[in-house]
């Protein structure tokens, strides 16, 4: 915090110094020095604004989010002060990262609103998709006081939204459901591998499934459009929010007529100045409306706008209440079947509940899409002919590819890497299938990504074919025969062969119990090292063979014919050739 303040103070002091020097240079008419100082002032000004907008503003948002959510985690300002004193750099970075994520998703939501609302409704917000918008040029031309006013306004708006969607819902939840909060957030755990595996599983599997799907964005856009239509008809602001459809159709017809008239005038002789005016109009009309669309202004318009803002605040409050309670409650209820009364990090319960809610909404949308075909078609034709067969195939493939293979892979990783590093020889390692499966999912995803980026071989070909087929054209026989069976066989051999050697063969040699324990605990990493060394050796041998062939071909290959460099073989070939000529 002290370094950030010193940095800002240094930028401000440097800017003030440059302004004073620029004024003195203007008084004594030093044109070159004045231009140089002007350039330096612009550079310092842009640097200062970049630091404020990218560094200071997200940091303020992050700290304000943390302060408003203290009651949700049963924390206090004293805890945050101790955390900052113990690790100031990490604390500042985490708050800046949280604030940056908040600003990013807020900007993404604004872009989504621009796709729904009438052009011109959000006139007070900058359009990031505007091709004429240049942030660097805006930083240079606008004065400092306007940037300062915009910064204060942004802080007020973002801070008010945090109060509305975080602090106030937390107070309401604590009043209605006293036992629901605080969230169980364990910063320290006795099982770091479990926590790490679940966090990586959340970041690599659950969140990509929620964020990378186009359905989620379409659902959110549909909800925004439905809310806008409802608010527009309730408050008679449909024309202001969405525009007039009839006017849009008339404008489209008028635009078509104008195009026809313009094509008819192309052969006419233009009047002086008409060509320049037409060019300017073409530039202005290129790409549709330029930031504004006319609308119908109803009576008592300011009062209706105030009611619209109040309706929006109530909607955001209710949406925040649902998002803070429903996923966590669903996740806690589902996790209780596996863990019982044990407390779990709320990050995992929220992710589980959110994923279940997403799957439920997806199933409802699919059923609604099938509704126009009739209930009989849904229950009989789709379910019996296609649905059951496809569901059974998908379940079998999911059990094999998302259940068995990750479990075996995670168990192998536990035996090869984790257990030798974490468990001493005088202790017995404990294996948890849930943790091994979670780590196996991550390793399977990483291996699949590396395989797809690597050279062409049988596993890459099979994975690409499975991806190309998808769920609709799923081929169960191909997946089992080409992908699941070979991979499971390799993993089972990797698990069973070292175990048979350590438990079945080594005791027959008459070694001590300590040696048997050492072999059982170290045979997996030892065999991995042997396999890696053998792979490197075979790879180097293959590369040397290729190098030898390349050198031999460069030296002796003429076109596509190899020159015979052995003397005896050369005489024999010459004699054979001459005898064939004589015959």
UniProtKB/TrEMBL annotation:
<feature type="transmembrane region" description="Helical">
    <location>
        <begin position="523"/>
        <end position="541"/>
    </location>
</feature>
<dbReference type="Pfam" id="PF23113">
    <property type="entry name" value="MARCHF6_C"/>
</dbReference>
<feature type="domain" description="E3 ubiquitin-protein ligase MARCHF6-like C-terminal">
    <location>
        <begin position="380"/>
        <end position="552"/>
    </location>
</feature>
<keyword id="KW-0812">Transmembrane</keyword>
<keyword id="KW-1133">Transmembrane helix</keyword>
<feature type="transmembrane region" description="Helical">
    <location>
        <begin position="437"/>
        <end position="459"/>
    </location>
</feature>
<keyword id="KW-0833">Ubl conjugation pathway</keyword>
<keyword id="KW-0472">Membrane</keyword>
<comment type="pathway">
    <text>Protein modification; protein ubiquitination.</text>
</comment>
<feature type="transmembrane region" description="Helical">
    <location>
        <begin position="193"/>
        <end position="211"/>
    </location>
</feature>
<protein>
    <recommendedName>
        <fullName>RING-type E3 ubiquitin transferase</fullName>
        <ecNumber>2.3.2.27</ecNumber>
    </recommendedName>
</protein>
<dbReference type="GO" id="GO:0005789">
    <property type="term" value="C:endoplasmic reticulum membrane"/>
</dbReference>
<dbReference type="InterPro" id="IPR056521">
    <property type="entry name" value="MARCHF6-like_C"/>
</dbReference>
<feature type="transmembrane region" description="Helical">
    <location>
        <begin position="483"/>
        <end position="511"/>
    </location>
</feature>
<feature type="transmembrane region" description="Helical">
    <location>
        <begin position="347"/>
        <end position="370"/>
    </location>
</feature>
<dbReference type="GO" id="GO:0061630">
    <property type="term" value="F:ubiquitin protein ligase activity"/>
</dbReference>
<feature type="transmembrane region" description="Helical">
    <location>
        <begin position="93"/>
        <end position="113"/>
    </location>
</feature>
<keyword id="KW-0808">Transferase</keyword>
<dbReference type="GO" id="GO:0036503">
    <property type="term" value="P:ERAD pathway"/>
</dbReference>
<feature type="transmembrane region" description="Helical">
    <location>
        <begin position="305"/>
        <end position="327"/>
    </location>
</feature>
<feature type="transmembrane region" description="Helical">
    <location>
        <begin position="6"/>
        <end position="27"/>
    </location>
</feature>
<feature type="transmembrane region" description="Helical">
    <location>
        <begin position="151"/>
        <end position="173"/>
    </location>
</feature>
<feature type="transmembrane region" description="Helical">
    <location>
        <begin position="391"/>
        <end position="417"/>
    </location>
</feature>
<feature type="transmembrane region" description="Helical">
    <location>
        <begin position="39"/>
        <end position="65"/>
    </location>
</feature>
